[in-house]
Amino acid sequence: MKIEDVTVLVVDDSDHIRTLFAMTLKKMGIKEVHYAADGAEGLVRFNTDKPTITFLDNMLPKLSGMEVLKEIRAVKSDAVVVIVSAGHRHQAIQACS
Description:
By secondary structure, this protein is of the alpha/beta class. It is 45% helix and 21% strand.
């Protein structure tokens, strides 16, 4: 797969983090980047946009990152999801195993 064929979903409630992801991913040559500011919106975007990779904050409003991950895995067990978290590392590692 070529980098320009990759689609990315960034689920994070921080405008600053979403902007950083946008700038970095676009510099890498990724053309299609989608965003969500909370867990519920993230699930909708995941099911609508069908991203190649999802960057998912652990601490989100409406649905936590772990709840979103559980729902993503129920829909697509082989989805590529990267947990982005400043804390709660142990919980994130357990959810991914």
